[in-house]
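General statements about sequence and structure are easier to judge against a single worked case. Part of our work consisted of pairing the sequence of a single chain with a tokenised description of its backbone. The amino acid sequence and the backbone structure tokens for this protein are reproduced below.

***
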Amino acid sequence: MKLRDLIDYYSRDDIQQALLRVAKDREVVGVFRNGSFAKRPNTILYPQDITSMIRQGVMEFHCSLERWSRPMALRQDNYDELRKGWDLILDLDCRVFEHGKAAAIVFCRALKKHDIKNYSVKFTGGKGFHIGIPWESMPAELDGSDTVKKYPDLARNIALYLKDFAKEDLEKELLRKFGTPEKIAEQMKKPIGEIAGGAKGKEVFDPYKVVDVDPVLISPRHLFRMPYSIHKGSFLVSLPLRPNELELFDKEAARPERVKPDLGFLEAGEAGEAELLVGESVDWHNRKGPKKAKEKRKYEGPVSALKRGYFPPCIKNILKGLPDGRKRSIFILTNFLSSAGWSVEEIEKLLIEWNRKNAPPLRDNYIRTHVRWHQGRLRAGQKKLPPPSCKKEGYYVSIGVCQPDTLCGGQAKKIKNPLKYAIEKADVKNRKHKSKGKGKGRKPKPIYI
């Protein structure tokens, strides 16, 4: 492709506007013909930024998975401070274009099975495809903290889970479309041993040796080729597609002169849509992910689960249902109940029942996702955490549930934490049972739900 053709393409108003829409809040870096990257950090804000970079020798544009409050201020020590969101991109890398297309169809099906409709698909311009879930579809909070802070670990876990979830379907799809593993290896111009392992005659076909999805690439400041950028090797456009166009998609449609940028990429997220996917990935990671060493210190809580009668006024008020502060209340309730001896199953059941009283209720998937994240912490050996203290700003008083009784110490709030209230009330009750049963052979009643 000649420089004049490149300038003509990137000078088109519709192409410039498409690039600028995706570039918002992202780091954008140019790539030269020899594959080297331009200086970082960088971004594009105006049409002239694009043409200026092309005249300097840039041929491709790559942008960050992460969204930043100030992309140009990025330094190695301030990523967490400036990160305001992140998109999940599955990079389907392959040798044969048709193999990549088959894999894209499989992963689109996998997302639909997790109730995700607003995902994006694009041809990379080479042989593979990108499938993306926008930040807006992710749950805003997880385990009582902002999901934005869980990058890149959560994004990697989702990608690993999807690989595991889709593996069998991908294997069937590749064999259905292209025949035996031997034929697939021949199409790739590879020996059969590179896509199937095991003893001779008993080789096991590995679909991810045909189309790779590498979650390790999901890392801080990782870049991907922007939609409507030209690919420096093929001179084709990295073209967004509708999922139903994949089956019949031909690379000829990605020639620069044929491209019309009428389809966005990562623009149509729906709040909370990815809650089920996140919940399932967390659950999968807890069961199959790498095990962490257990901490030596263990939480010392009540021997038996504390029953509801011992709950403090704030917890009882939360359990009546709320119009506001519902997500903060999930964090409060999960930590309170867990520290009070309740099992994960009992906590999830109570939260689902409580959620029906909220106006409006949260998605049940949001509840399950939070509980599974909490369960993962416990399985990894992390200690139980008590609920926020009574004076913690943004919690009990803020959501209108703090109504201290005499045991709380009235407005003085002598008890500093809801869990301490429940344990003291249970202890007082037990002491009364012991005194009543003294000399009569009576045993104190156990503390139970």
